[in-house]
Every structure is written in structure tokens, then in C-alpha cells.
């Protein structure tokens, strides 16, 4: 029997996840939808020809739809309340990143899940499912480049909307790096500092763009990440791990090289949807397979909390201009 799913928030990624569940993945079916913009939920239902009910809001969906699993794909600030409600109702929940926009919000979720006594939550950190990042991790773990010493990384978006502000560069964008570096290095952060280069004229008043985030880990690895969300030229994710004996670079997405109009080159991607299309498929299939096996193994609430603790420190560092400490508590048994 298919796992029944309710989607809360049917915007860009909610609609895309509903599409992949319906058209690409196996073992799950979307039977419930909601969005603060109900028309948007109706549109997704009709476009994908879903045999689904549109609920008035997320809490009604959780309480009355009878679904096995909930996908929380609404705006970041609304995640915590829906994830807590889903846990309370004993439902599995896949929550897009960030798990919550603050560490306290994530801690509330970890506490609720521990009280439930089993893992119910998977966070939408898809990069560990990406074939390029997996190759990078393999290169590190095999010892090919020796002990990692530094990471130089960049997270560039073509442009962002007017509602995107300076802290979002951390808790909405950098949060992917904050998760994936812990996984790549098998290490934890101890401190951060944020510095601001000259501002691009393409950023609006509420946004300092670009930003450079500096991180230090327990093992002494130094990391610099450029977050530049109005870079204009494309969607570009870079990661170079410098080891004692070599450098491992995240592979570029596959693209045809063309000779045309007296130029040699290839097109760059412009959208996260295309850049990580395969990893979104694999992460969600893993979530459903975990439900079938009654054992979730993907990115956990603990991963959400660890990233959020670092994220909070980075947001503080944006304001203070100082080096801020990052302290992760002891990992509970449930997440070992
Ligand atoms: N893993 C990844 O690479 C990506 C993750 N995301 C995450 O997914 C979430 C949604 O992002 P997008 O789809 O890009 O945004 P979006 O703005 O396109 O869609 C969000 C939808 O949620 C709805 N919504 C807002 N508050 C709601 C509430 N209280 N109840 C029900 N619906 C509500 C909005 O009306 C909108 O339709 C964010 O947390 C974002 O960080 C987004 C893009 C990529
Ligand atoms: O998660 C995502 C968006 O929400 C976020 O706003 C973008 O900066 C990221 O590149 C994308 O992967």
C-alpha cells in the first residue's frame, strides 16, 4: 500500500516535491495539500491531476487527513509549528531546510521527538545525497588528499526577492553548507566570523550581499564561504577541500561543451531545482523507504539543530563583527 502524504506549502519546492512523488518516485501518494494561498494548492492539485483534498490550513491537514507522512515545505519561519504538530500526531515528517530558523526552535523539535521515543523527522538537507558531494566525501575519507586543512566554498544564487534579508543569507542559504561541511569532515564547528565585502548594487536595502563566512572546526580546519545571492550570472555551488597532499574539488554539473559563434563554452545552470534535481529525488525516496522499514536514516532533527546552532552564531557574528563561539551539546542516544 502506498504511503499517504500531505503537503503543507505548495510553492516552488512543495509543488516540485509533489510532482516527484507523483511522477518519479515509488511507494507514496499525495492525498492532501494546503497553502496559505489556497488557490496555489488547488493549482498544484489540478496540474498534477492528484486525487487529493485541499485543507484550510496545515493543522487541519495534520489532524484530519489521516496521512501517514507530512511534507513541510512552507516558509522557514512556519516549519517549527507544523513539525511539532506532526510529531504530536505521531506522523512521519519531512521538513524542508531550515528545520527551524533558530536553534531554540530546532531544540523544541528534538525534545518533542525524543519524548516520542523514535525518529519521525527527516530534514531536507539534500547535499549528502548529491553524487558530486558523495565523490568529494569519498576523496576525503579514502585519504587521497591527506588530512583536510581548509575548505574554500561559494554559494551563489542568480538573484533573490525583496523579502530576502541579511540573516537569510545564513539561515536560508548558508544552512546547506553548515550541514554539509559537518558531514564531509566528520567534525564540528567551534567559532565563526562574518565579513562584508563591498556591496553589490543589485542588492536591495535590507540585504548585505555578498558576505564571507569564516568557520573554524574542532579539528582546526579553517573554512571560508562566499555567500553571494545576487551574482547575476547563474546558480553556482563551489567547494574545494585542501588537504595535506592535494585538493579535492566538487565536480561541476555535467554539461555539453559547444563550439559556436567563435566561442568555446557551456551553459551554466540558473536554478537550484535543476542543480540538485537528482538528490531531491534520492532524499525523498530514502524518506519513504525509511518509513516502510520503520527506521529513518536520513538527515535528522539533530542535524537540523547542529546546523541551526552554527547558524545562530553566524547571525550574531553578522551583527557583532566579532568571532563568535559555537557550542554543540552532547548528541543524545536517539541520534547516534
Ligand atoms: N532544499 C532546497 O534546496 C530548497 C529548500 N527550500 C526551502 O523550502 C521552503 C519553501 O521554499 P520555496 O518553495 O522556495 O518558497 P515559496 O515561497 O515558493 O513557497 C512557499 C509556500 O508556502 C506557503 N506558505 C507560507 N506560509 C504558510 C503557512 N503558514 N501554511 C501553509 N503554507 C504556507 C506560501 O504561500 C508558498 O506557496 C523554505 O523553507 C526553503 O528554505 C526552498 C528551495 C530549495
Ligand atoms: O534552499 C535553497 C533556497 O531556499 C535558498 O534561498 C537558496 O539560497 C539555496 O541555494 C537553495 O538551495
UniProtKB/TrEMBL annotation:
The Gfo/Idh/MocA-like oxidoreductase N-terminal domain, residue ranges: 3-125
Catalysis: reaction(s): myo-inositol + NAD(+) = scyllo-inosose + NADH + H(+)
Organism domain of life: Bacteria
List the Pfam families hit by this protein, alphabetically.
GFO_IDH_MocA, GFO_IDH_MocA_C
EC assignment: the record states 1.1.1.18
Q: What class of enzyme is it?
A: oxidoreductase
Q: Name one GO biological process term.
A: inositol catabolic process
Record carries keyword Oxidoreductase: yes
In alphabetical order, the GO MF annotations are: inositol 2-dehydrogenase (NAD+) activity; nucleotide binding
Q: Where is the Gfo/Idh/MocA-like oxidoreductase C-terminal domain?
A: 137-325
Keywords per UniProt: NAD, Oxidoreductase
What task does this protein carry out?
Answer: Involved in the oxidation of myo-inositol (MI) to 2-keto-myo-inositol (2KMI or 2-inosose).
Q: Which family does it belong to?
A: Belongs to the Gfo/Idh/MocA family.
The subunit field of the Swiss-Prot or TrEMBL record says: Homotetramer.
Full protein name? Inositol 2-dehydrogenase
Q: Which source organism?
A: Marinomonas transparens
Amino acid at each position: 500500500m502506498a504511503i499517504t502524504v500531505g503537503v503543507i506549502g505548495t510553492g516552488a519546492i512543495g509543488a516540485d516535491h509533489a510532482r516527484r512523488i507523483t511522477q518519479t518516485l515509488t511507494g507514496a501518494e499525495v492525498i492532501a495539500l494546503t497553502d496559505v494561498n489556497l488557490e496555489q494548492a488547488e493549482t498544484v492539485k489540478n496540474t498534477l491531476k492528484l486525487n487529493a483534498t485541499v485543507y484550510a490550513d496545515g493543522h487541519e491537514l495534520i489532524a484530519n487527513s489521516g496521512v501517514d507522512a507530512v511534507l513541510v515545505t512552507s516558509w522557514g519561519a512556519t516549519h517549527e509549528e507544523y513539525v511539532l504538530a506532526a510529531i504530536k500526531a505521531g506522523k512521519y515528517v519531512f521538513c524542508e531546510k531550515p528545520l527551524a530558523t533558530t536553534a531554540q526552535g530546532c531544540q523544541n523539535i528534538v525534545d518533542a521527538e525524543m519524548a516520542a521515543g523514535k525518529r519521525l523527522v527527516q530534514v531536507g538537507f539534500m547535499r549528502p545525497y548529491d553524487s558530486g558531494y558523495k565523490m568529494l566525501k569519498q576523496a576525503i575519507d579514502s585519504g587521497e588528499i591527506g588530512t583536510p586543512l581548509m575548505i574554500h566554498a561559494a554559494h551563489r544564487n542568480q538573484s533573490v526577492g525583496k523579502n530576502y534579508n541579511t540573516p537569510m543569507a545564513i539561515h536560508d542559504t548558508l544552512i546547506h553548507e553548515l550541514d554539509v561541511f559537518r558531514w564531509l569532515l566528520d567534525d564540528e564547528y567551534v567559532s565563526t566570523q562574518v565579513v562584508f565585502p563591498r556591496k553589490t548594487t543589485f542588492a536591495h536595502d535590507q540585504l548585505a550581499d555578498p558576505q564571507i563566512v569564516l568557520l573554524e572546526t574542532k579539528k582546526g580546519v579553517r573554512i571560508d564561504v562566499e555567500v553571494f545571492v545576487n551574482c547575476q550570472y547563474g546558480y553556482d555551488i563551489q567547494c574545494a577541500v585542501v588537504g595535506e597532499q592535494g585538493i579535492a574539488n566538487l565536480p561541476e554539473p555535467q554539461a555539453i561543451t559547444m563550439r559556436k559563434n567563435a566561442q568555446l563554452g557551456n551553459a551554466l545552470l540558473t536554478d537550484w531545482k535543476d542543480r540538485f534535481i537528482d538528490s531531491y529525488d534520492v532524499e525523498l525516496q530514502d524518506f519513504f523507504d525509511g518509513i516502510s522499514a520503520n527506521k529513518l536514516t536520513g538527515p535528522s532533527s539533530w542535524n537540523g539543530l547542529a546546523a541551526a546552532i552554527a547558524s545562530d552564531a553566524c547571525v550574531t557574528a553578522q551583527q557583532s563583527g566579532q568571532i563568535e563561539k559555537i557550542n554543540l551539546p552532547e548528541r543524545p542516544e536517539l541520534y547516534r
